[in-house]
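I am still getting used to backbone structure tokens and would like to learn alongside you. Would you supply a protein for us yourself, any chain you care to pick? Start from the sequence, derive the backbone structure tokens from it, and show both lines together. Go ahead whenever you are ready, and we will take it from there.
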Amino acid sequence: MIVCSCNALSHQDIEIAIHNGASRPAEIYSARKCKAKCGNCVPGIVCLLRSALQKAQSEQTHLNAA
């Protein structure tokens, strides 16, 4: 799914950037060598970013408890 039509940034691009260490929207754009233009995508990117970070934190907590 395209999240940012200005930069043709897909949810997969965002997931890859997060997997490679991005933890802020600017780092996601930087990973694709672009930047926010109109800004309509930023809330969606933040939502995907939060979900991914929460999932990673939950998985780490689960691993530490085991």
